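S1.2 Input.
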Amino acid sequence: MLMDSGYDSYQQVDLDAQAASASPHQLVVMLIDGLLDEVERTRGHITAGRLAQKGTSISKCMNILIGLDSALDDEKGGEVAENLHQLYDFCQMELYQASLNNDVDKLTNVERVMGNIREGWMNFGQQS
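S1.3 Output.
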């Protein structure tokens, strides 16, 4: 258990260092990666019947989506920002339904949507 704690601390320091030196584009990708990791943890919690941990994971996912949504610039982003807003809302509703009904298929929907958004951000990053 002590080893896990040290490893977790190391990972957090590494993540903090990456975030401190990341561009806004890289931060968005990091957030999406964190969301996808947490969705996978949520799936494990649902499958194992760990309801308290499921709730914590769903909450983390929702907070990441809220953060991504709040970073959208409607004026500069126009239609793209509006489309992302709608996709983030969809993912929040799917997470809510997954939590309410312990439905891992809803998690798959979130992974699919956010995976596509991540791919778009990665392609955008290669062009800029």
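S1.4 Remarks. The chain has five helices and no strands.
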